[in-house]
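User: Structure please.
Assistant: Input sequence and predicted structure:
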Amino acid sequence: MKLPIAMAVALTASTASAERINAYIEDVYRTVYEDVPYTTQECVNVQVHNNQGSAGADALAGMIIGGILGKGLTGNDDGAAIGAILGGIAGAEDNAKRNRNTQPTTQRKCTNVTRYTREERTVYSHTTITFKVDGQTYTSTFVK
């Protein structure tokens, strides 16, 4: 904004005199940009396979049962070992059969995501004053 201001300045010389000085004052503004964060939720549909049980757990259960049966049938540790191996294989195969026939389902998975929007603001920068004294133009800038 420009303001004309009439300033009376007393000049010191051999004779006291006053000279009228016209000055213009201007506030200068500038535009600044700021990235402001905001959070939004993004969702997608994903296919999920509904596995029934753990293959490792089923194999372990088969090994324990097979080991007990093998020891009980043969009466020695070699029979227990063979029973454990066969039981483990049978347990893992049982789990694979159960999971082979399952159909995938669709589930909605959502996550929070940070995005940014750019905001524009006009802010004060500085002030400029321009005036003439004895035909000479002077300009000065300052911050209020």
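The longest strand covers residues 17-48.
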